[in-house]
Design goal:
By secondary structure, the chain is of the alpha/beta class. It has nine helices and ten strands. α1 packs parallel to α3 and α5 crosses α6.
Length: 256
């Protein structure tokens, strides 16, 4: 029986209290548990293409935070498993900070350094270690809210830059914010992408260009991540009510 579990991470930090950041020890424990459960880690595109049966685990990281290279990469190297990194290409050219709605609130705070981005040298290091590198658009917009011209440019430009910088075909993309609809899927196909990662709340149906992932956030604990192993729960997460229930749970955790 084939079971594909795709996890979506962003940043890794011991101190950053942002929802999209997970602690290194928590990340380590989560992946080790899934490996003990019999999941075999592979890249996103390989998992989606369905070449192998059994339990498959695809670990994905969105955005290109420097902390992924500094903290997550050594953990996965020790465990001997690859992952998939999705980069917004406009930010990878030089050392700086990621900036878009949702993370801008951390600028000017004591945690501002957590916004540091990777560069192409770091991206190539992960690629050479067996990671899949995919696009995360060029400037990280909500793709359903841009016009057709910008949509095509965000997709095509990011793919072209990835291919130029890495010297290999870029097959996969992750939609920023998991924001996708039929128009975006069609544009991704036209841009030449073969696989695409979204989040359960946005998945119209499971398909290679709209493949749902389980988001893992700061306030998760190991017992909750264990429940993500359940294919039944993952189907529930793709229903319209799940985003509301999940958001309410995270608000409760933050208030605790």
């Amino acid at each position: 029986m084939r079971d594909v579990l795709v996890l979506c991470y962003h940043a890794v930090s011991k101190r950053w209290p942002a929802e999209l950041s997970v602690a290194p020890d928590a990340f380590d424990a989560q992946i080790e548990h899934l490996l003990r459960r019999g999941y075999r880690a592979t890249t996103f595109s390989h998992a989606v293409e369905g070449r192998d049966g059994g339990r498959q685990l695809a670990i994905t990281f969105d955005d290109g935070f420097q902390s992924v290279q500094d903290l997550a990469f050594p953990i996965l190297e020790r465990l001997g498993v690859p992952a998939t990194l999705y980069v917004p290409t406009s930010f990878m050219e030089s050392r700086g900070q990621l900036a878009w709605p949702g993370i801008d609130e951390w600028k000017g705070t004591e945690h501002e350094a957590e916004l540091a981005n990777m560069t192409w040298d770091g991206v190539r290091e992960l690629r050479d270690a067996g990671w899949e590198i995919g696009a995360h658009t060029h400037t990280h917009p909500r793709l359903t809210q841009v016009d057709d011209a910008q949509l095509a440019d965000e997709l095509q430009r990011s793919r072209a830059i990835c291919e130029k910088r890495l010297g290999e075909r870029c097959r996969s993309i992750a939609y920023p914010y998991g924001d996708v609809d039929g128009r975006v899927i069609a544009a991704a196909r036209e841009a030449g992408f073969e696989t695409a990662a979204t989040l359960p709340a946005s998945a119209e149906r499971v398909q290679p260009l709209a493949w749902p992932r389980v988001g893992v956030y700061r306030y998760e604990n190991l017992s909750r991540v264990k429940r993500h192993c359940s294919p039944t729960l993952r189907r529930v997460q793709m229903t319209p009510l799940w985003p509301l229930a999940s958001a309410a749970w995270r608000r409760t955790r933050r208030a605790a």
